[in-house]
Amino acid sequence: MVEGLAGFDTLGISPELLRTLESLGYEEPTPIQRMAIPPLLEGRDLLGQAATGTGKTAAFALPLLQRLADEAGGGGRSGVRALVLVPTRELAIQVAEAVHRYGRELGVHVLPVYGGQDFQQQLKVLRRGVDVVVATPGRALDHIRRNTLDLRNVRMVVLDEADEMLDMGFAEDLEAILSAVPSERQSALFSATIPARIAKLAEKHLRDPKRITIERERVAAGEIPRVRQLVYMVQRRDKVTALGRVLDMENPKSAIVFCRTRTEVDEVAEKLSAHGYAAEALHGGMTQDQRSRVMKRFRDGTCELLVATDVAARGLDIEHVSHVVNFDVPAAPDAYVHRIGRTGRAGREGTAVTLAEPRERAMLRNIERLTATKMTVENVPSVTDLRARRIGLVSAAVRDAVVAGDLDQYVIELGSLAGDFDLMDIAAAAMKVAHDSLLGHVDEKEISRVEPEAAPRKEHRKGPKPNTKTFGKPAYEKSASYERADKREKPEKRGKSEKKRDKYDRHEKSGKPGKKFPAARFDKKKRPGPSRSKRR
Q1: Beta carbons of 201 and 174 less than 8 angstroms apart
Q2: Residue 311 in contact with residue 88, Cβ under 8 Å?
Q3: pTM: predicted TM-score of the whole model, two decimal places
Q4: Could you give the CA distance from residue 493 to residue 502 in angstroms, rounded to a whole number?
Q5: Nearest to 201 by CA among 181, 183, 187
Q6: pLDDT-derived band at 353, boundaries 50, 70, 90
Q7: Please, are residues 231 and 380 in contact by the beta-carbon 8 Å criterion?
Q8: Is 175 exposed, middle or buried (0-12, 13-18, 19+ CB in 10 A)?
């Protein structure tokens, strides 16, 4: 037993993997790992539901690696033996790196396969031999159709972020890939949500799966949730200004701003950069090299704000993301769950901010029902709030400088000023200069406030109230005028053919042929009969 990993060693993980986990700093398994690893080691299929950032990668990677180690050899001598399907290129790289780290002592070879990378380079590595392929569905299917990806020896298939793959339109690709894999295999499907189509996919391709669900953490009364969920109601025209003020007030270490479209991503990133923020755009319209450079800058802290679409940022595991901002309310509540999963990962605290328009209140209520949490609605920071916040930041910086010391050269200069001015005035002027040089001037334009949602007004109709107790259509409660109207005899409703016969009879009694009934037709034998429906 490896000391310090009492939780992992009880799951049946091999000593080699335990040593690797210890060297990587793992202390105890997360709930999804504790529940998923034992059945996967037993060889059972698995359907797992857990939010992003809960440790799903290790939950399937560790059993996968142990199974490969227990079988004959490594080094890719028997071809690809495990296939992991993920929705995006970034997630493919991330999962491949994790599998490589976990399986380093076992000599397992891993290859990420995704679009945007040189096809011939991937083919060269595949021909050398790999044990695990982590692929996006589109590029995996390209290799299968060209007979460059041999899946005959695959023993385990993992679908990670399955709901997102279906949302991206990979349903047919997944069916084609799974049909090319041997039926005698172990399968695992992981998803943040389990809608009907995911359940249908699992029912078709998983055999008697072990189903596990990691419930979202519920906050007890009086406790503070790990992820604060804030909503600011703003008009569309004020969103960029409101975003800047919220970022100034929150002062995030690093944040991801989600937008719906590529065009919106580029516009928001450009405006944030113009306001002095280190912002970068990330979306599917960029080349792989561009995306890789952006992600490198965001990971190493050079870029503090990442403005991205849902697809581009899907599955990113970046520890230092403190804030997630929804520039628009997601159309689907599930997408909101995926977005806020980028912060507060693995038990850390985080903040999710949503900029909502008044017309999107119903969408917010849908999200609250899905997450079973109440989002806090805040007022957009005013000019006064922002100025006070910035002065507070300067004051904190001054306090740190005093504590740090090394102020001798400034004390000499201060002595020359003290003879002419009061020390308090000198200190205030110094803070003003620092504020203006470091943080600039506050935009004096106030953002129009959105009034809270009013309670729905009851409509009052003129006349007597409807009586809903009557059978069929609602009737009006009878007043004196309605009672008089009811006493009047109303003619029966008659069909067209009956009216036609009555008109014929009137002409016949008068002895005068009409336009529709000429004299030649004044014969009772030719009298119009009942309609076809009444004959039946």
Answers
A1: yes
A2: yes
A3: 0.60
A4: 14
A5: 187
A6: very high
A7: no
A8: middle
